Amino acid sequence: MKNSFILLICLIIFKFSDAQELPNITLKSTDDESVSIQELANTDTIKVFSFWATWCVPCINELDAISEVYDEWQDETDVEIIAISTDDSRTKKRVIPLVNGKGWEYQILLDDNQDLKRALNIAVLPYLIVVKNGEIVYQHTGYTPGSEDALFEVIKKHSN
């Protein structure tokens, strides 16, 4: 009985220590191209998926802050930022003008039905996930100035 209990605890720890895989969901790009999230993420380079919306001020602040250092990040780690808009059908028409106005050089995907957001159980924006080889290695909710520095440390740790 004692051995069974220890085995059960070990299995639970092992299961929850596994990195979470991304769901098999296809989103649209701003050019109306279909993009498979799993195919996009299943590389050995670091991908950062930033979930945001046009009405979310902290989201925009976070993407602006990352934009200022993005070139340096890419030079050092070859990271790619994918900004996933969770704007619904009423507000998604604001996405492209906002992105163009900000000059963000991220790949922009549209999750207007919020399928990916629901599949990942995202309740609060902004929400970031860091992915390597198709597995989520880091998740973060919210934004405060300077948290992009902590994010870059995570990126550097996993880019080796």
Query: Mean pLDDT, nearest integer?
Result: 89
- The CATH architecture would be 3-Layer(aba) Sandwich
Number of helical elements: 6
Q: Which sequence of strands runs across the widest sheet?
A: 1-8-7-4-5-6-2-3
Provide the domain count: 1
Give the CA-based shape.
globular
Count of extended strands: 8
Order of helices and strands: HEEEHEHEHEHEEH
Approximate strand percentage: 15-25%
CATH-level-4 superfamily name: Glutaredoxin
The Rg value, from CA coordinates, equals 17 Å
Assign a percent range to the helix content.
40-55%
Name of the top-level CATH class: Alpha Beta
Structural class: alpha+beta
Quaternary status: single chain
* CATH level 3 topology: Glutaredoxin
Provide the low-confidence segments as ranges. Answer: 4-18
Q: What characterizes the major β-sheet?
A: 8 strands, mixed
Span of the ends, CA to CA: 43 Å
What key attributes describe this structure?
160 residues; 8-stranded mixed β-sheet; globular; alpha+beta; Glutaredoxin; 6 helices; 42% helix; 24% strand
